[in-house]
Design brief:
- Helix content is 37%, strand content 26%.
- By secondary structure, the chain is α+β, with helices and mostly antiparallel strands.
- The chain has one domain.
- Helix 4 links the parallel strand 7 and strand 8.
Length: 216
């Protein structure tokens, strides 16, 4: 009986490991895409083509769109400031979150991106990380839909959050002392693989990128 129990436990562990590896591979693809797009944004900033958070949104949308099309993923959608309704659950009150960008493949939400633009200061991040935490808790209950479409074609179906969804915080600023600090990272205990942080330092033009506080 013990041998059979151990065999089943081992098989379950192997399946869990393979599942985690598949999720990691999917996130890695989106992580690389986000980093490449943000590097493109950095080049646009150096050309003095970005002057506000709205133009940062537009630049990130454009860089992502270009890369998706180059990889034959033209059906992927990038929504700007969609309304995400989080339901009441237990002690959690209902809440509406409006992230800067939401990326969807043909089936589900694969990335949620929050952007900050404070080229002469330190971008704040506490509110964004709190939103990430809430969405990570209820990601299996949330869907995104293009509700403002009107035309001959039917509106796109609602997109559920993928299990491999990636939460991205990307900022342009002069200092990082309060931007994506360790207390913020601790809002996502045990979920660092779901999180990505990128920072364009306007003082020296460098871009840093990490996952859960670990430099990539």
């Amino acid at each position: 009986m013990n041998i059979l129990h151990e065999s089943r436990a081992g098989l379950k562990s192997q399946r869990g490991k393979k599942w985690s590896e598949r999720l990691g591979a999917k996130r890695l693809g989106m992580r690389k895409m986000a980093r490449a797009a943000f590097e493109g944004v950095g080049a646009l900033y150096e050309q003095q083509l970005i002057n506000s958070e709205r133009s940062l949104q537009a630049a990130m949308w454009h860089e992502l769109r270009q890369r998706f099309e180059a990889e034959g993923k033209s059906t992927f959608k990038i929504y700007v400031e969609p309304r995400i309704r989080l339901p009441k659950e237990g002690r959690l009150d209902s809440r509406t979150i409006i992230p800067d960008l939401v990326v969807c493949n043909d089936r589900s939400v694969i990335a949620v991106i929050e952007l900050k633009f404070s080229p002469k200061g330190a971008p704040g991040s506490a509110k964004d990380f709190a939103s990430f935490e809430r969405m990570s808790i209820q990601h299996d209950l949330v869907k995104v839909q293009h509700t403002r479409w009107f035309g001959e074609k039917p509106v796109s179906k609602p997109y559920p959050f993928a299990n491999s969804v990636l939460f991205v915080w990307a900022a342009v600023g002069k200092r990082t002392s309060r931007a994506g600090s360790q207390p913020d990272l601790e809002l996502l205990p045990g979920k660092n693989a779901m999180f990505m942080r990128m920072f364009l330092n306007t003082a020296n033009g460098t871009i840093s990128c990490d996952r859960g506080g670990e430099e990539e």
